[in-house]
């Protein structure tokens, strides 16, 4: 009986050649004319179906009809098709002593052991469960990756990349080793990290299965936005402190001081672009009590135009925080600077702000629910409101902000707040 109370299907039991008169069986059931019948029976055994009822063959040949007649010792009947009851075949095999254990044992002796399809599928499912076990271990290490791990399992990404259970297990074991120690702080070379953690400097090269899955997990860790292309991948790796090189990651600044080059640009009131290489080798030696951060270059350019050398220190992320930006902000925060952030009032802007907050402590710079509502109220009525799009996100620095955006459904770009932000930078209310 099965667990639900139904009769268990007849399934071939292990047999030995000694229980079956194989030469006689081949003459009786193993002829080419009865091959179709043997295949039908084996198909039922594989499917876990009982060997009962009739099987039919459309348009049989005279030889196939004669073979059934010899097997059953009676005419198989007329008609265009040929019908054979499996119980009758089983009875013949048992009575004759050709196969004392019946039809299932006979077919097994002729064609080899039969593994029911349900067992095959159960074994395959168990193998794939074992293959994905490193994901479960990773979630125990990093609970914040639980949703990502579930997606990888459900959408079959690792299965498509690895193809076999053993390969997938090896792949996910490496991905777990990488993600459990990311983000890297301080930032390190991507190749050096791959060599140390995965045993090969090329394990995280573009296009490798390890790179595809690890980069997907990094986006779940850091909130890095969707994208494509070489530059996007470089910045996505950098968001987790993994550097493809030290020169491609940069940050845009205005009126920072603490190196000869920065002092010169601050005296001129001109923006400066700092590379990660510069920041790792010679970071600013001084830090202002307050450093403001904006999302868009237009804000920094306007501040340079309007205020020049009089503008207080300002850093622009230009979208997702780069490795260079994170290195600079952490350095300034470590030297005592209070960081204040402003960005776009839309889901993308809030996601950038959240990603930054997970890496560096900052306070909002006119970036709260009250500021958003004030921006809506003060918007130029001649400008068409821009509807909010994208996937909502949380705003841990002010939970009411996400609710306010959801309620209003309107985005407000940072540039539309330019006059207010410049007023703050001038030091006037």
Automatic annotation (TrEMBL):
It comes from the Bacteria. Transmembrane segments: none annotated. Signal peptide: none annotated. Pfam families: DUF2399, DUF3323. Residues 52-257 form the Conserved hypothetical protein CHP02679 N terminus domain. Residues 273-425 form the DUF2399 domain. NCBIfam families: TIGR02679 family protein. This is TIGR02679 family protein. It comes from Streptomyces chengmaiensis.
């Amino acid at each position: 009986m099965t667990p639900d109370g139904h009769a268990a299907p007849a399934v071939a039991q292990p047999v030995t050649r000694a229980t079956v008169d194989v030469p006689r069986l081949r003459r009786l059931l193993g002829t080419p004319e009865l091959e179709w019948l043997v295949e039908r029976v084996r198909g039922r055994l594989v499917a876990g179906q009982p060997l009962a009822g009739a099987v039919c063959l459309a348009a049989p040949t005279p030889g196939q009809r004669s073979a059934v007649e010899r097997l059953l010792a009676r005419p198989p009947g007329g008609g265009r098709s040929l019908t054979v009851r499996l119980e009758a075949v089983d009875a013949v095999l048992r009575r004759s002593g050709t196969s004392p254990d019946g039809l299932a044992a006979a077919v097994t002796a002729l064609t080899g052991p039969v593994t029911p399809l349900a067992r095959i599928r159960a074994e395959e499912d168990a193998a794939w469960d074992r293959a994905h076990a490193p994901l479960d271990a990773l979630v125990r290490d990093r609970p914040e990756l639980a949703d990502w791990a579930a997606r990888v399992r459900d959408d079959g990404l690792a299965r498509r990349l690895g193809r076999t259970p053993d390969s997938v297990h090896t792949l996910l074991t490496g991905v777990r080793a990488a993600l459990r120690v990311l983000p890297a702080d301080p930032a390190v070379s991507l190749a050096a990290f791959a060599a140390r953690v995965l045993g090969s400097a090329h394990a995280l090269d573009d296009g490798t299965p390890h790179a595809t899955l690890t980069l997907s997990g990094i986006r779940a860790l850091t909130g890095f936005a969707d994208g494509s292309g070489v530059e996007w991948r470089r910045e996505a790796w950098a968001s987790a402190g993994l550097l493809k090189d030290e020169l491609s990651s940069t940050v845009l600044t205005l009126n920072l001081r603490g190196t000869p080059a920065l002092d010169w640009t601050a005296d001129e009131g001109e923006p400066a672009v700092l590379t990660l290489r510069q920041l790792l080798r010679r970071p600013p030696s001084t830090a202002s009590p307050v450093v403001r951060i904006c999302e868009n270059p237009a804000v920094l350019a306007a501040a340079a135009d309007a205020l020049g050398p009089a503008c207080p220190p300002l850093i622009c992320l230009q979208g997702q925080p780069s490795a260079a930006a994170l290195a600079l902000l952490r350095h300034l925060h470590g030297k005592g600077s209070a960081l204040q952030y402003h960005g776009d009032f839309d889901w993308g802007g809030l996601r950038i702000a959240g990603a930054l907050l997970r890496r560096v402590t900052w306070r909002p710079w006119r970036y709260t629910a009250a500021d958003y509502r004030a921006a809506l109220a003060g918007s130029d009525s001649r400008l068409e409101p821009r509807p909010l799009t994208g996937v909502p996100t949380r705003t841990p620095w002010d939970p009411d902000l996400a609710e306010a955006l959801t309620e209003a459904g309107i985005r407000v770009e940072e540039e539309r707040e330019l006059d207010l932000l410049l007023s703050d930078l001038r030091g006037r209310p």
